[in-house]
Prior knowledge:
- Keywords: Membrane, Nitrate assimilation, Transmembrane, Transmembrane helix.
- GO terms for molecular function: nitrate transmembrane transporter activity.
- It is found in: Membrane.
- It comes from Pseudoduganella namucuonensis.
- It is a multi-pass membrane protein.
- This protein is mainly α and about 425 residues long.
- The chain has two domains: about 15-220, MFS general substrate transporter like domains (Growth Hormone, Chain: A), CATH 1.20.1250.20; about 225-430, Up-down Bundle (Growth Hormone, Chain: A), CATH 1.20.1250.20.
- It contains 18 helices and no strands.
- The chain has helices at about 15-35, 40-50, 55-80, 85-100, 105-115, 125-135, 140-170, 175-200, 210-215, 225-235, 240-270, 275-285, 290-305, 305-330, 335-360, 365-390, 395-415, 420-430.
- α11 (about 240-270) runs antiparallel to α12.
- The mean pLDDT is about 90.
Amino acid sequence: MASKANSIKLFSISTPPMRAFHLTWMAFFICFFAWFACAPLMPVIKGEFGLTMAQIANINIAAVAITIIVRLIIGPMCDRYGPRKTYTGLLVLGSIPVLGVAAAQTYESFLFFRLLIGAVGASFVITQYHTSVMFGPNVVGTANAAAAGWGNAGGGAAQALMPLLMAAMIMMGVSETFGWRAALIVPGVLMLVMSVVYWKFTQDCPQGNYSELRAAGIAIEGGKKGGWESFKLAAANYRVWLLFVTYGACFGVEIFIHNIAAVYYVDHFSLSLKEAGMAAASFGLLALFARALGGWVSDKAAMRGNLNSRVTLLFIMMIGEGAGLLWFANADSVMFAVIAMLVFGMFTHMACGATYALVPFVDKRALGGVAGIIGAGGNVGAVAAGFLMKGTGGNVQQTLSILGVLVAASALCAIAARFSTTAVEESALAAA
C-alpha cells in the first residue's frame, strides 16, 4: 500500500504526493490571485461607484473577515469529504462571486460579491491539509511551508498583473468601465479550469480517496472523524488555541503590512507612489522563499533534536519578528526602514512556515479541524491589527510599535505549546 513521501522531488509528478504538492500550491496561487484581484483596481472602481474611504474600509474588512468563518468550516470538511472534493468545490463555488463582482453595478452589490470572494482565502487550509497527509514527518514542514509560500505569491502577482490585464483590455478598444470588469473575469475562469485539473489528477491521501478507503474498511489517519467531530476534537486542544494566537501574530501581521506599507512609506518618508510600491513589494517577495525556509529549518531542527525543537524555533522567530517590527516603527530613514522591514519580514514569513510545520503533530485524529482553526487565527490577527490602527486614530507608527510588543509577547504562546515526552517519542518513532 502506498505510504507518505519522505522526500520532495520537485521535478516529478509521477507519485500522488508530488502531484498533490504541485497542484495544491497552484490552486492556492490562483485562489489568492482571485482574492486580491480587486485591490489594485480599486482606484478605478472607487471612481466609477463614487466610493468614500469608509466604504472602501468596509470592502477591505469584508474580504478578510469572512475568511475566518470559512476557514473554520473548511478544515473539518477536509476530514469528512477529503481535500480533493473540498478543493474542487471551493474552486467552483468561489469562481461565482469572482465572476459576479465584474457584473456589480452598485456599491452594495460590489460589497456583497467582495464579501463572498473572501471565502476563497480558505484555500490555504486545504493546501496545508493536503500536503500534511501526503508527506512524512521528516519533510512535512518543508512541504507545508513551500506550498503555502508559493501559493501566497498569488496575492503579489495580482498586484502586478491585474492593472496590466486591464490596460491590455483598454488597448483592445474597450472603455475603462468595461476594462476592469473584463480583467476580473480572468481569475474566475482560471479557478474553473483549476477545479477540473484538481479533480482529475489528485487523490485525498497516498492510499487513495477517503470515500473508497472508508468503503473498503481501511483506516484513514487524517480523516478518521469528519465535520463537527473534527472541529470539537481540535477546539478542545489547548495547543490549537496557542498556535491560533501565534499565527495571528505572524500571518495576521503579514496581511496588515501588505495593506499599509505603501501608504506608510508615502506619508512617513514622502516617497512617490512608484517608490513606495517598490519598497512594499519587497516584503511580499519574501513569501517566495522565506516561508519555505521556516518549514525547512523546522524539519532540520526536529531531526537534530526532537518535536519540541520545532516549538523552540517558533519562539525564536516570534521574538525576532517583534523586535524587527519595533525597529521598523522607529526607523528614521528610508534605508533603515526598508532594511528593518526585510529583517522582520524574514522572521514573519519563517514564523508562518514554522507554525504550520507543527500543525500535523498537534492532533492526528482531527487534522482538518486543527488546520482550520489555526488558519482562521491569521485572519483574526489581521482584523485585530486593523481595529488597533483605528484605535490609534490611524497612526501607523504607533500601531506598529504596539504590534511589535504584542508579537513578542505572543512568543510565550509558542513556548507554552511544548509537547509531552510521550508525543515527542511517538514523533521520533514515526520519523525513524
